[in-house]
Amino acid sequence: MLIKYGILRSAACLAILGLLCMSGVLAQSNAEDTVLDFSVDFLYTPPQKIFAGDKLFFKIKNTSYFIKEKPGISIGPFPDQGSLEEQGWSIETKTEDSSLDEIQFMAIPLKAGKVSLPALLLNDKDGHTFGRTKPIALEIQSVIDPKDPKANQLADMQPPVSLAFPVAFVIALCLLGIVLIGVVFYCIYLIYKKWKLPKTIAIDKNIIQKSEDEVALWALLELEKQDLISKEKYKAYYFRTSEILKQYIGKRYEFDAPESTSIEIVEKLEKNVLSLEYLNALRNLFSDMSMVKFSDKKPDAKNAKDVLQSVRDFVLKTRKIKVQPVLTNGNSS
């Protein structure tokens, strides 16, 4: 009898334990499937008028527990309601921070009129839905004036209202840029002049005491010795020939011919009563030399030699006439 009683007692205990386990599992399953309702409120006091495109900040009440117990919470729309953009909203959530008192999110209305912030689902990191919010009705103002007759037309392009920098700063910056460009071009010119133009022939100290025509004739002779024509260095050859001619004219007629243009030189010589024959010859000389100096024209060797000879002839024909002193024996008749 005692044995039978013990067996019955054990069976009863096992049955009670089974029932308790089943109830616990069912309770846990029901807890997991339970979807709670939450209210949404403004995080800050909203403006009196809300316009399309304004940033609105909200909080979901009584969710501090879920932030700590269910990290990685996400907010999204109901599947059967379409995307948030289709419903006229752009929503950015801030749910990763476990130090928040309640779930917070930012919503931007994309449409004007009487709209509702839609109901949202709260999901944990595993995708299980544990809550949902209630929609909020809002009146959203349009940024376009309702009285505007061209409300549906695109606005014309407008010039910039203001500069990002002060006007004085921009002007100074432009001037600095112009100066820098000028310096760069001047340096390029100096390099070109140093490497492309012929070097000035060193003049012997004894020739300094000689007349300008003797110096010019000697310089032409030295230029011929350089044999630039056979080396096809025509540009250097013509630059040097022009330099010799200008130096001679400057010394002969006493003005700054080397720093003058060919037109200025001819005009200056007209005032010195230089004959028309020599003026025309000089014009032709400068014209022939400029065509080679300042263009890609390549003369032949004969023309190059003729130019130098023409310069030599000009020097010989325009040089000062030297008066030979008359020697006497000092006797009177």
Provide structural commentary.
The structure is a single chain. The protein is an alpha+beta fold. Among the domains are: 36-141, Sandwich (Immunoglobulin-like), CATH 2.60.40; 209-318. It contains 8 helices and 11 strands. The protein has helices at 2-33, 64-69, 167-195, 212-225, 234-253, 262-271, 276-293, 301-318; strands at residues 36-38, 40-42, 50-51, 56-60, 74-77, 89-94, 103-109, 113-117, 120-123, 129-133, 136-141. Strands 1-10-9-5 form a 4-stranded mixed sheet, with no helix packed on it. It has a 4-stranded antiparallel sheet with strand order 2-4-7-6, with no helix packed on it. A 3-stranded mixed sheet has the order 3-11-8, with no helix packed on it. The protein is rod-shaped. The protein starts with a helix and ends in a 15-residue tail after the last helix.
Describe what is shown at a glance.
Among the domains are: 36-141, Immunoglobulin-like, CATH 2.60.40; 209-318. It has 8 helices and 11 strands. The protein is 44% helix and 15% strand.
Describe the SSE topology:
Blueprint: H1 2-33, E1 36-38, E2 40-42, E3 50-51, E4 56-60, H2 64-69, E5 74-77, E6 89-94, E7 103-109, E8 113-117, E9 120-123, E10 129-133, E11 136-141, H3 167-195, H4 212-225, H5 234-253, H6 262-271, H7 276-293, H8 301-318
Parallel strand pairs: 1-10, 3-11
Antiparallel strand pairs: 2-4, 4-7, 5-9, 6-7, 8-11, 9-10
Helix pairs in contact: 4-5, 4-8, 5-7, 5-8, 6-7, 7-8
